[in-house]
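2024-03-11 09:14:02 DEBUG pipeline.ingest accepted 1 chain
2024-03-11 09:14:02 DEBUG pipeline.ingest length=140
2024-03-11 09:14:03 DEBUG pipeline.predict start
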Amino acid sequence: MGPRLLHGSKTFGVGDDPGNICEGIRGRGGAQPNLRLLSGLLGGEETMRFAYPEMGLELAAISSPRLSVLIIAGPPEKRRPFEATRLTIKVETLEPVLSVLEKAGAEQLEPVQPTPVGRKTRFRHADGLVVEYVDHVQKL
């Protein structure tokens, strides 16, 4: 069995179509205005929120049956390192995904690093797309 991608309470195998993916949105005025707007637009609910003090950011997620949205809020200079990332994918665990990505010729842009809720790394896919892969060790 290959790596498993997680979304909410659903688990998908790599290559399956989950129908929704976490997309990064950079909030300018804190997470709260975007949370209200996106909750209303998506008919979703807040499923995660945490401070990331090491980076000077606040992260939050809105999830609905159709789409999960990750909001990265904070001052522009703190958000800048995240601007090149076009997609964030939550996986069950990073290690099997790393192997698949390396075999596919993706370039690892940063080592696996701890976050307040788990771990993360970023890869540049062969087509140039920069994707962040995360796993969570605790449920928020």
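2024-03-11 09:14:41 DEBUG pipeline.report The chain has a mean pLDDT of 75.
2024-03-11 09:14:41 DEBUG pipeline.predict end
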